Amino acid sequence: MSDFWVHDFNGFKMVLDKTDLDFSRQVLMLGNYATESHESQIFEKRLRKDQTVLDLGANIGYYSLLARSIVGSGGNIFSFEPSTENTSLIKKSIKENKFENITVVEAAVSDHDGYGSLFLSPYYKSEHSVFEYHYSSGDHKGDAQKIKLVTVDSFLENQADLSVDVIKMDVEGSEKKALDGMKKTIEFNKKLTLITEFWPQGFANAGIEPKEFLETLTSLGFAIFHIDEFLQKTYPVSINEMSKLVKERMDNPVEKTKENQSGRWYTNLLCVK
């Protein structure tokens, strides 16, 4: 019996994998992607017909496919994902939907072009990282594959006169490096929306403080909003407020349960210019 099946998200179909213990398992059990239901809503609200969307750290393609269902055939979606196992699933979903304007870029976004290692999680397809740490187990060892590294700025140099409207970023602690590699893109696109994961342990793996990441966002001209899955609402936050919120949530009994299940507390931010 095949490990693959097709799930209909009412707007697009997605090929899922029973061996994927994260996204696919959740959809199989619940019928939807409940973990990021509010983020999905915010992402949808920022999208318009014919826009260009970058999905940085696409995993198995949920946000890329969701974006395509809204921007339509006149838009452009660039789906960056270094894991060959994950990109294989993305390509299956693209074929299933007969989408022609999702470009799969088999690379990790960084602050320089070149090559690196992707350390593969034995548990979750979404947990592969350029850092030797897996949050579900605390392991610092694992299988790795050689991957291509690319900056968003250098990639877009080959896309003549292409403006970018929305960026979704979830790159397992490499968010600061990704920002450093797309400063020209951020400066050029004056009305850019960025939705990014905010994972304190991921920043620690990268050798930076969460505050440094927030300061980089504000220095690039972004106003920051917290996409609060716990409260199911989005609201503006300052750097100090976000730092305080991290501590409060880590002490919250409900979030502590979540932390025990997934390894470390994380959330997402909406950043607008």
TrEMBL record:
<dbReference type="InterPro" id="IPR006342">
    <property type="entry name" value="FkbM_mtfrase"/>
</dbReference>
<dbReference type="GO" id="GO:0008168">
    <property type="term" value="F:methyltransferase activity"/>
</dbReference>
<feature type="domain" description="Methyltransferase FkbM">
    <location>
        <begin position="55"/>
        <end position="222"/>
    </location>
</feature>
<dbReference type="GO" id="GO:0032259">
    <property type="term" value="P:methylation"/>
</dbReference>
<keyword id="KW-0489">Methyltransferase</keyword>
<dbReference type="InterPro" id="IPR029063">
    <property type="entry name" value="SAM-dependent_MTases_sf"/>
</dbReference>
<dbReference type="Pfam" id="PF05050">
    <property type="entry name" value="Methyltransf_21"/>
</dbReference>
<protein>
    <submittedName>
        <fullName>SAM-dependent methyltransferase</fullName>
    </submittedName>
</protein>
<keyword id="KW-0808">Transferase</keyword>
<dbReference type="InterPro" id="IPR052514">
    <property type="entry name" value="SAM-dependent_MTase"/>
</dbReference>
